Amino acid sequence: MTTSLIAVLVIAVGLPLLAWWVARRPYWSRLRPGAEPDPWRDLVRRHGLSAGEAARVATDVPRGLRLPDPRLRRAAVEWARELLDQEQLRLPRNPRTRGVVVVLVIVWATTALGLLVFRIASGEGFDVDWFTVAVWIAAGVWGVRRRRALRRAVQLNDELGRAGSG
Predict the structure, then answer these.
(1) 20 to 30 A Cα–Cα from 25, which one of 9, 19, 52, 63?
(2) Spatial distance between the Cα atoms of 154 and 81, rounded to a whole number of angstroms
């Protein structure tokens, strides 16, 4: 009986004290929810976009369309440039490492394409995983079209660039 009473007392007093002690540790203060950068939220606040305007910018920029309002055009140019920067291929800064990565990617792509051509030419085209080939081709086409649309959105909506070139 005494042992169970002591156990309940330790749990009733000890757990809150332990929770308070752990919460006061310095590593918890470094964790700040919502402190991560959010480029879209910052863009919407910076340009003062309403929900409808933000939705219009979000849908028209990836399509490469021109927006009617100059304020929306400025937001569209900034968002398109942000998306292009996010999707930019990040190669290592070291030139030697960058060269090795580029060479390895070229060798891999050439080998994969050569193997595909060899299998088709040797009559083993039925043995090729055509779904994977189709996925790679679709991903490549989608990436190229998306980048072109984002560049077109920058061209059509950039008033400063057009005013300086005309």
Answers:
(1) 9
(2) 7
In angstroms, rounded to a whole number, what is the distance separating the alpha carbons of residues 147 and 111?
Answer: 26
The rounded distance, in Å, linking the Cα atoms of 7 and 135 is 61
Specify the residue for token string 């060479």.
103
The tokens describing 34, both together, are 């919502």
Select from 64, 165, 63, 42 the least CA-distant residue to 54.
42
Phi, psi of 122 (to 5 degrees): -85, 5
Taking the C-alpha atoms of residue 116 and residue 128, their distance in angstroms, rounded to an integer, is 7
Asked whether 102 and 108 are in contact (CB, 8 A), the reply is no
pLDDT category of residue 161 using cuts at 50, 70 and 90 = low
In b/e form, how buried is each residue of 120-157, taking b as 16+ CB within 10 angstroms?
Answer: eeeeeeeeeeeeeeeeeeeeeeeeeebeebbebbbebb
Has this prediction a pTM greater than 0.70?
Answer: no
Nearest to 66 by CA among 160, 149, 144: 149
